[in-house]
Amino acid sequence: MDKLITIYHGSNQIIETPVFGTGRKNNDFGMGFYCTVSNDLAKEWAVSSLSDGFSNRYTLNTEYLNILTLNSPDYTILNWIAVLTEHRLFSIRNPVAGRAKRYLIEHFGINVNAYDLITGYRADDSYFDFAEAFLNNAITVEQLSRAMQLGKLGEQIVLKSQFAFSKIKYEGFEVAEKDRYYILRKARNDKANHTYLDILKEENDGLYIQDIIRGGISNDDPRIPRNICK
Questions:
Q1: For the whole model, what pTM was predicted?
Q2: What's the CA gap between 153 and 71, in Å, rounded?
């Protein structure tokens, strides 16, 4: 990562001064300021079916920041799922899912609050369904990984610490038109839904979360995909 980067935050409002310690605790990586290096992706995240949004542009000096790069080969897909499990609100539909949540956090969890900045893939609502299905023992880790690869998930950059917030500078905004960007967002979600239904129909003899728990499988097992996207 270059030391000085341009990032964008999609929102329904103009945000000139991001404030540390605000935001939703139940986002992918917990509380933080969620951005992306893609202006178009920020615009997709900014709009709704009813209203335009804004892509707020910033420069960020990453020098001296402690950065966690979750989508690198240093981590597995289960590291990403464990972080989601700890912060997002999952539907626990059976006893296996409850055990799975505890096992993932204990064996694959990462303390994201120890970092200034996190980069990793965003679990849009449609792709969150895959993570939830895996947690509920409905799909295998191989199917989960393949779904993520097919999805071409957007990468997000999350400012976590007060130090990181001190390194960001507002540069302006662009309007995100709902008539253009909501269509793109909906197309992404529709593709995810079709992929999800196709995967659920498959027969698969791979590793389900219950197999992972019973086998005491850890992060260094070669059967666990090492990252989300190719």
A1: 0.89
A2: 11
65 alpha-carbon distance from chain centroid: 20
Tokens found for residue 59? 């420069």
Q: Residues of 44-60 as b/e, b for ≥16 C-beta within 10 angstroms? A: bbbbeeeebbbbbbbeb
Residues 87, 93, 99, CA angle at the centre, nearest 5°? 65
Per-residue pLDDT reduced to its tens digit, 40-78: 999 999 999 999 999 999 999 999 999 999 988 889 999
Q: The dihedral of CA 36, 71, 68, 139: what is its sign?
A: positive
How far is residue 25's CA from residue 21's CA, in Å, rounded to a whole number?
Answer: 10
What secondary structure does DSSP assign to 51-77, as a single string?
A: --EEEEEEEEE-TT--EEETTSTTS-H
Q: What percent helix, strand, coil does the chain show, rounded to 5?
A: 40, 20, 40
The answer to whether residues 28 and 83 touch, using CB atoms and an 8 Å cutoff, is yes
CB-CB contact of 80 with 88 (8 Å): no
